[in-house]
């Protein structure tokens, strides 16, 4: 879809990367780190300064204690953390439950581990995408090893509530499952919606591999710097795989992200506020253009239903959208195991400059005339 945007000159509200930079002082720290010699292999688990900053950040935001020596592992983005966790903890034939639609790397990582992905579908209920607790319970079998939980959730924008997380936590304990949590949008929630890490629920810290990343938090998706927090034996397992994927993550970014976690809290708060405005700007425009719009409580993304515009297939719709309106979006069906369940949904990203959103909205109005 990004290639289609380039070819046609359409505005790209498809891929979810921001079009503005991260905090200037943090960028300067990366330059400084390179200039002052942080250019050789860092230790396998990551630069100690970053592991310490991650540990402090977990304690401050979530009252979770992780020992920087043994319970924190720096990875090449959340993507590597997810792959290493799945490869480390699943045997061939194991089942991994993930909420569908899901981030595309999950299915690939699970396939590499020769495990089986079992999708539990999120469906619109009262304006937000949610799962049916009975359907989740029914998905657990004797082969289930792991639940992959992404909240705030890409691509639906759902932020799981404490009640929803409690259902997941109880199942994990009842069936002795490991939870792997993808929390890359932990700071990007709106209207005061709290992000609750699954590891903070009773009995969950000891069975949860908690994954975060600097990419979305600091608008540096190209830095590919993420981290895992978990009990030592789980971190050791993940690190054993990570060692032969990449051995270690790039040094300069680690130094800079440690600085960001310690000093850029206000910048993150400003990003969150600005994204909430952008969300509202895009939602108003999409509503005016005739879409049914689902209000996201977090992330960069708005889900829409295209049926009020007279379309039923999101793939066909998004292929034609550059010609119809000069805009590119993503057909949500690509995030499903069973594409027919998401055939009529289309995802738009709002992590873009206001003038870009305004121009896209003006163009999309063509759809309703
Ligand atoms: C962007 C994204 C990732 C990837 O994070 P990196 O740190 O860039 O690897 C993982 N999960 C979700 C849900 C994402 O949206």
Q: How is this structure best described in words?
A:
- The two termini are 25 Å apart.
- Strands 2-10-9-8-7-3-4 form a 7-stranded mixed sheet, with helices on both faces.
- The model has no long low-confidence stretch (mean pLDDT 96).
- It is globular.
- By secondary structure, the chain is of the alpha/beta class.
- The protein has helices at 2-8, 24-35, 48-62, 77-89, 105-112, 133-139, 162-174, 214-217, 232-245, 251-263, 265-289, 314-325, 354-364, and strands at residues 11-12, 72-75, 95-100, 116-121, 123-125, 128-130, 144-150, 178-182, 208-213, 226-229, 292-294, 301-305, 327-328, 330-331, 345-349.
- 42% of the residues lie in helices and 17% in strands.
- The structure holds pyridoxal-5'-phosphate.
- GO terms for molecular function: kynurenine-oxoglutarate transaminase activity; pyridoxal phosphate binding.
- Residues 10-364 form the Aminotransferase class I/classII large domain.
Whole-number mean pLDDT: 96
Task: Determine the strand fraction and express it as a percent band.
Answer: 15-25%
Order of helices and strands: HEHHEHEHEEEHEHEEHEHHHEEHEEEH
Main beta-sheet annotation: 7 strands, mixed
Q: Give the structural class.
A: alpha/beta
Could you say which overall geometry the principal axes of the C-alpha atoms support?
A: globular
Query: What small-molecule ligands were found?
Result: pyridoxal-5'-phosphate
Cα Rg: 20 Å
